[in-house]
Structure formats: structure tokens, C-alpha cells
Amino acid sequence: MVHISGQATLADDCDLDGVRPVKQLRGRRSRDRLLKAGQKLVARRPFDQLSVADIARAADCSVGAFYLRFRDKDAFFRALIAQYVAEGRAETSELFATHDDDRLIGVLVARTTNRFRRYAGLIRSAIRKRMEDATVWEPIRRSGHFNADCFVDWLAARHARKLTVPEDLSVRFAFQVLYGTLNNALVNEPGPLDIEDPAFPVHLERAFRLVLLSTGTPPALG
């Protein structure tokens, strides 16, 4: 993956099934316009309600140009997921490289919440499609594990020791609570707080910290 104007885009030689590699600047630009248009459209409408013609029109491309870049709608959707995951991994790497105290936790929860808000339509569509094909969700699941791995490594480095098994489990469960709460808020809106509520990330950070401190001998976070 590479980044253009702050947004992740696909590498020219990406190996995603059904996404054709590009060799020229013109092809790269049309592919990136299609992806940008797709992200905007899926923010407003479920992906299953979009047609290839809708996507091409929004990108100011022909339907033929779409099929030059993507085998079908499914390949295009997986490319949108790959773009979302790439952006998230870049943000995660920057986050852990620039924070050396427990203020990282608040920033981590706030940024994750904001990403769910920005990509709410894409995530909802991915959750729906997962019911039919679990492989659609796999890159997002792996991304969550990557973030938990980064936190484990960051915490171990701070304390100059490997985390105990209970401590490691608490970190990973804290991330499960984080993502599970966000997914549930997007799909089911159970209340009492909506994901757009300013208090939502505040309470989510509190829950994250409580899980981290649930082990008998937790690593210090201060």
C-alpha cells in the first residue's frame, strides 16, 4: 500500500484477487478515483444497493474502465476493505511510535472511534457480507489482532519484561471489548450512548482501562 493525500491506496502490483495491477499513471488514477468514489457512496448507502454503474458514474469513469481495474463488485469491495485496513495499520504504527506513556490509551480509543464513525457505512456493509462469506471480514479481524499485538509489545517494552499470560489475555480482551462495542453500536444502536455521542469514547476508554487492570498483578499504566 502507498498513501496519497493522507489516504491509503492500493499498490500498483497489489495481489488482491480480482484487482488487476496497473502499469501506467492513467490506470492508477482511474482506479484510485473509483476507490474514492466507492468509499463516499458506501458511507451513504449499503454496498449491496450500489451498482457498478453507480460507482463508475460517481468516479467519472466508464463501466468499462471499472472492469479494466476490478473483476467484479466483490473484488472492488475487498479492495475498499484493503484500503481501510492499510490506513488503519499506518495510523497504528504512527500512534505507537509517538506515545511513551498511558496517554496512548485515550488517543487509541478516540482514534479508533473516529475511524468507525468515518467508515461506518463500509463496516456495516462488511458485517452484513460476513454473514454470507466470512472471508470478507478476515482482513479486518487480522487488523484488530495486529493492533493488540502492537499494544502487547509496547507494554512489554515499557516494563522491560514479557507480559504474563493473564496480562496478555487482558490486553487482547480489552481490544475485543473495544471492537465489539463499536461494531454493536454501529449495527444495533443499543444505547444508552450513540457512537456519535461525545461521551461515547470517554466511557469506552474507561471500559478498556478496567479490563486492562483486571489481572491480579497488572503492569503499571501510569
- Uncertain regions: pLDDT < 50 for 5+ in a row? 1-7
Summed up, the domain count is 2
Question: Order of strands across the biggest sheet?
Answer: 1-2
What's the average pLDDT? Answer: 88
Molecular structure report:
With 222 residues, this protein is mainly alpha-helical. The protein has 2 domains: 2-73, Homeodomain-like (Arc Repressor Mutant, subunit A, Orthogonal Bundle); 99-212, no CATH class. The protein has 9 helices and 2 strands. It has helices at 25-44, 52-58, 63-69, 73-97, 103-118, 120-130, 138-159, 165-187, 199-212, and strands at residues 2-4, 7-9. A two-stranded antiparallel sheet has the order 1-2. Strand 1 and strand 2 (7-9) form a beta hairpin. The model is unreliable at 1-7 (pLDDT under 50).
Give the helix/strand layout.
Blueprint: E1 2-4, E2 7-9, H1 25-44, H2 52-58, H3 63-69, H4 73-97, H5 103-118, H6 120-130, H7 138-159, H8 165-187, H9 199-212
Antiparallel strand pairs: 1-2
Summary keywords:
2 domains; disordered N terminus; 9 helices; globular; 222 residues; two-stranded antiparallel sheet; mainly alpha; 2 strands; Arc Repressor Mutant, subunit A
Task: Give a nutshell description of this structure.
With 222 residues, the chain is mainly α. It has helices at residues 25-44, 52-58, 63-69, 73-97, 103-118, 120-130, 138-159, 165-187, 199-212, and strands at 2-4, 7-9. The model is unreliable at 1-7 (pLDDT under 50).
